[in-house]
Design goal:
Arginase, Chain A; globular; alpha/beta; about 350 residues; 10 helices
Length: about 350
């Protein structure tokens, strides 16, 4: 497994008290250092090109964002730039493309540790701490390169509205999201399934606040993994947000560190089984200790190919998973015309 990491991600500076703070980059750097100490490999990111960004972002928006270079600007209620932010955001998007291409070429998983996150950024606006939509840029780059089918699996606690809308009519890009609902940003209901030729290729799994490891295990086993197997992507991209952790201050879920390990392990095992290249790109995760632990368990789960059911704390998904069962029923009703669930 290859890690893409750089101390430069510290250079995107948010205002004091902002959850998406430079200390998150310190956690990334420490995780990368532990990885290298264990004999792992790492490489530096390269910036996304204008052509790569324009595949998913409007030219006028890119011009507007580039106009903030060298300045600290409040773009909206929760998203800010500092003098270096545009350059660092381009590195984040470029790292996502780099991860996708290396996974396709090298046949091994790649994990890009980047900030700012990306999945809320829409075609024409920044949103939710996000400037460029890193995973969407990578998915579009893979499609332009000739990959017939790309899957994006978003495990962040917030729905990735930007990624969803960018591919909402596109049957070549499957977007699957498990998220707290109703919650910020207000999108991600089960009946948001795509439009036109893209109908059925958006699969939202809305979970109620308080969802546990068992709820997540149920929906991944019964919904997410079967849909991915049926879709058979050439590339699977994971929007790896860890803010569904029970210690995270921005949400109300109860996923443990081991629970995240099982989610990642199941997705990685499925990708390997189906012959799909696999790349992960960080999104949210705002409790620093929980973020560090989740990065470590992700690296362990992928690098050692530990079966999900053997990870510490493994549980039967059918036990004490009422929120998962309600989500399962809603998604099956919404997706009945599209998938064998």
């Amino acid at each position: 497994m290859l890690l893409i990491s750089s101390p430069r991600f510290e250079e995107h500076v948010s205002p004091p008290g902002h959850p998406e703070r430079m200390e998150r980059a310190h956690v990334f750097n420490a995780a990368a250092a532990r990885w290298l100490e264990r004999g792992g490999r790492s490489t530096a990111p390269r910036p996304a090109t204008r052509e790569e960004l324009e595949r998913v972002h409007a030219a006028a928006y890119l011009d507007e964002l580039e106009g903030t270079a060298g300045r600290a600007v409040q773009l909206n209620a929760d998203t800010y730039t500092s003098p270096e932010s545009v350059e660092i955001a381009a590195l984040a998007a470029g790292a996502a493309v780099q991860a996708a291409f290396h996974a396709l070429d090298g046949g091994e998983p790649v994990f890009a540790l980047v900030r700012p996150p990306g999945h809320h950024a829409e075609s024409d606006r920044a949103m939710g701490f996000c400037l460029y939509n890193n995973v969407a840029v990578a998915a579009a780059a893979a499609r332009a390169r000739g990959v017939e089918r790309v899957a994006v699996v978003d495990i962040d606690v917030h729905h990735g509205n930007g990624t969803q809308w960018m591919f909402y009519t596109d049957p070549a890009v499957l977007y699957v999201s498990t998220h707290q609902f109703p919650f910020y940003p207000g999108t991600g209901a089960a009946d948001e399934v795509g439009r036109g030729a893209g109908a059925g290729f958006t699969v939202n799994v809305p979970l109620e606040a308080g969802a546990t490891d068992a709820d997540y295990a149920l929906v991944y086993r019964a919904l997410v993994e079967p849909v991915l197997e049926e879709f058979a992507p050439g590339l699977t991209l994971i929007s790896a947000g860890y803010d569904a952790h029970d210690a995270d201050p921005l949400a109300s879920m109860r996923v443990s560190t081991a629970g995240f390990g099982r989610i990642i392990s199941g997705l990685a095992s499925g990708a390997a089984r189906n012959g799909s290249a696999l790349a992960l790109v960080t999104e949210g995760g705002y409790d620093l200790q929980a973020l560090a632990a989740c990065l470590d368990v992700t690296l362990q789960a992928i690098d050692t190919a530990i079966p999900a059911e053997t990870l510490p704390g493994a549980c039967e998904a059918s036990i004490a998973a009422p929120r998962g069962h309600r989500a399962l029923d809603a998604v099956r009703a919404a997706q009945a015309a599209y998938w064998r669930l």
